[in-house]
Amino acid sequence: HITGFVEMLGTDAGPTLNEQGRRYIGIISESARRMGALIDDLLSFSRIGRAALTETTVDLQRIMTEARTVLEPETAGRAIDWVVGPLPQAWGDPTLLRTVMVNLLSNAIKFTRPRSPARIEVGSWEEGGEVIYFVRDNGAGFDMHFADKLFGVFQRLHQAREFEGAGIGLASVRRIILRHGGRTWGEGEVDKGATFFFSLPARRAPW
């Protein structure tokens, strides 16, 4: 409703408004758009906690490739060096694990925007009954003193004017991985990049 009425106001009264008035309309419209996006993100976050898990063998290598395809509009015209290692198959919900990969790759793409070339590395290793997957980048990084805030809802370590986002993506990653019996954590250094990890139990299909 806010967006609709602001558009009508701009159409009907726009020519009579001064520059400051038009600026106010622009601020209202953009704020309403951001609120709509935030509500959509919160609804998605809520559904992650309620949806039943459909567990099967998941080809994370294929999911990572699909995630890169989905995110191609965000990488258009950019120089990005991708380094992709083997990603063992997992046992879990393919739709939710695809969300994990999309969110982590999207983060890496976003926070390496000032870099040319950017470097994004995806890999894994197995230890202690877990497979640990990671996404590493050479982007903005973060201060490890605030690492405990990384996966909280609405927690942001960078200002919105630098990097857009609502602070829901990593919280969604943590919720999904916890539902799969795994762990999430991050490591970084300001202006020297970040690495985000998630683990999944090294289980195989029950058959």
Can you describe what's shown?
The protein has 207 residues and is of the alpha+beta class. It has helices spanning 2-13, 19-50, 60-70, 72-75, 94-111, 169-179; strands spanning 56-58, 80-84, 90-92, 118-127, 130-137, 184-189, 193-201. The strands form 2 sheets. It has a 5-stranded mixed sheet with strand order 2-4-5-7-6. Strands 1-3 form a two-stranded antiparallel ribbon. Strand 4 (118-127) and strand 5 (130-137) form a beta hairpin. Helix 1 (2-13) packs antiparallel against helix 2 and helix 3 (60-70) crosses helix 5. The longest helix has 32 residues, at 19-50. It is globular, with a radius of gyration of 20 Å. The model has no long low-confidence stretch (mean pLDDT 84).
Question: What is the gist of this entry?
Answer:
This protein is of the alpha+beta class and 207 residues long. Helices cover 43% and strands 21% of the residues.
Provide the low-confidence segments as ranges. Answer: none
List the helices and strands in order.
Answer: HHEHHEEHEEHEE
Count the DSSP helices.
Answer: 6
Tell me the helix content.
Answer: 40-55%
Number of strands: 7
Secondary structure category:
alpha+beta
Overall 3D geometry?
globular
Order of strands across the main sheet: 2-4-5-7-6
Q: Report the β-strand fraction as a percent range.
A: 15-25%
Distance separating the two termini: 53 Å
Q: What kind of sheet is the major sheet? A: 5 strands, mixed
Rg calculated over all Cα atoms:
20 Å
Mean pLDDT, to the nearest integer, reads 84
